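In the current project phase, work has continued on tokenised descriptions of protein folds. One protein thus recorded appears below exactly as we store it.

——
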Amino acid sequence: MDSLVTRLGGLPLAIVQADRYMQETGTSCPSYLRLYETSWSALQAEVPWMRDYPNGSVQTTWTISYDHIRHSDTVAPKLLQLWAYLDHEDLWFGLLTRGSRGTKDPAWLQDIVRQELRFKRVMKKLLAYSLIESYRDRESYSVHPVVHDWCIESISRGRLDLMTLALMIVGFATLTQSEPAYWATQQRLLPHADRCVQQLHTVGDMDMIQDEDSDSAFMHWAFSTPIRAS
């Protein structure tokens, strides 16, 4: 059960739903985890509706919050969709500005990176609906793992444009080894790079991502990052 609680990030509603489903179906923790990783959407459709909780389910809760945001801010939901292709931890303003390609970026991303105050307004909106958390000491933000799972399955599935954009942001945000903050920045970028690689594996064919800049970003990352010991 500890591994399940860890995977669900300690989120009470998600844990209660999982426990109720396992009881009602005779499913073991390892089997539930396997279904969660391989059949998220189908599993969420099967988990019991929790009448004692507002909105009844994890999926409904985040969907309602997302719909509210969509009607009040056009940029915040797009950033959340992109975030599905980055790691759920440690998104910071400098990641987006360093990885920006200027006018080649979508208009909504240009809007965010143009001014830090605009970026903070977007994050304030997501924080208000408890979709993200903030770390003031690092001036960065994270998405709860379950919310991150919901993002990739419900609002970002199959978005090759966002997958490409995430790859380019991480690639172009990479510093050269001669720059002072190289090692610290690389440590922050590695989880995002791993997430990009993970999502590329779901596509199965790199040729499906047709963008010269994405190739440049990938090569920039590859040649600027030392090989990690496995």
Notes: Strands lie at 132-135, 140-143. The first strand starts at residue 132 and ends at 135.
